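Students often ask why we bother encoding 3D structure as a string. The short answer is that it lets us treat folding as translation between two languages. Here is a chain of 534 residues written in the first language.
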Amino acid sequence: MTLRLTDIRLPLDHPEADLQAAIEERLGAGTTGFSVHRRAADARRRGAIQLTYTVDARVADEAAVLARSPRGVGVSPDMGYRFVARAVPGGERPVVVGTGPCGLFAGLVLAQMGFRPIILERGRSVRQRTKDTWGLWRRGQLDPESNVQFGEGGAGTFSDGKLHSQISDPEWRGRKVLTEFAAAGAPEEILWLGKPHIGTFRLVSMVEHLRASIEALGGEYRFGEKVVDLDIAEDESGRAVRGVVLESGERIAAGHVVLAVGHSARDSFAMLHSRGVAMEAKPFSIGVRIEHPQSVIDAARFGPSAGHALLGAADYKLVHHAAGGRDVYSFCMCPGGTVVAATSEPGRVVTNGMSQYSRAERNANAGIVVGITPADYPGGPLAGIAFQRHWEERAFAAGGGGYAAPGQRVADFLAGRPSTSLGAVVPSYRPGVTPTDLSACLPDFALAAIREALPAFARKIPGFTMDDAVMTGVETRTSAPLRIGRGPTLESLNTRGLYPAGEGAGYAGGILSAGVDGIRVAEAVALNMVGQGA
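And here it is in the second language, the structure alphabet:
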């Protein structure tokens, strides 16, 4: 048995021996060893930044320590992952549609349980996809099937690679995601850092490693295979999936289909809606990307400790409750990163952010987005897609075509005047940024809410409204604009054997939560296939 100690606080530059001393002081006993479960930085007081630790310690007499009931000490939880089922040899093979974090972990866990999944991806393998994505960024040439949204690794491949979330799922599934990533080549620190991240370049090789693991266990990958229809049988007991139909016309028989298509699979959503799969519109957010010099954010967050090796590039998380009830918040903040072209459809501009592991680029960027609800885009489950497309088309026009993005200096945005040039902050978005007026690219309520929020954010982060900070439009793909309903068995509400999963189905938001949802769905599929489902 080991004991877990939480909220051990020490100064940023504490000697290494101080941690063991703090552990033994809390326990009131010596230790026979300890390991750090989590380390985070508390920067709320810029002049006195602390490191906070959660540790697992071994002592000679755990019962005696626990009997004293020391503050923040309990039995370390068992976070080992246990498979819920094992496949019957020669049995049915489930199909997984999509290879983002959700589909990747659904496929991996199914393969580890012996089910030999068939994994379908409309885009290309991750290295070819990277070349295709650079084609848009460098030459303005979009491949609608191989881009930031579509291809092996999903949208998370071109991101900051954050591996933390606020989900309440049992910790062992999240730990499973982290340990598999570490085994695939991620730095070991992701297992204990409070805010772990990986970065795009490392994600590429990790995705390849995980694919190799799945194939070694009997799983099958098929790239460039777009699912265009479902084979659904209907009888007195209801609807059930019997297979998928590919764009080539091929039909793959399957009674268990995991839909992990991602939040931008708009044609897939339309197909599912036409086939009567239960879905509903849901809230999402829209806005812009904002860029500042990373040095400004570092100084604002860390004060005299800016640049400290243990702190790295500073991030931030901001929320403002605007008049009229709108929430404005920072989204997918990328320290030392770049703003990227993230469209998946011709004639539309979409922005997102990404960072490398080093987070060493000149600028910090984040989405500044406004929450919206189906009341803002009435018309049924697909109305949010039409809403997104409208503003993406406006952004394309405002950028002047060629996938250049519209941009505006913060000073001009707050003053309500177009930008005719940009200043000291050089935007990182490629193929390029056109100075203009972002008011053409967002609804009036979003513009008003962001104008109200920016000065409030500047009170928390001095310099946030610096004149030359750059806003680039538009950020529309914060999450799926719909949810594909599922019940207690994680199957579709009205189509047995169909398992909506991940961000595209409305059940995750980020790499870690999508991976966890993929594991949950894999477990549900496995139990159903061996006859233990609810």
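Translate back mentally: The CA atoms of residues 15 and 21 lie 10 Å apart. Keep this in mind for the problem set.
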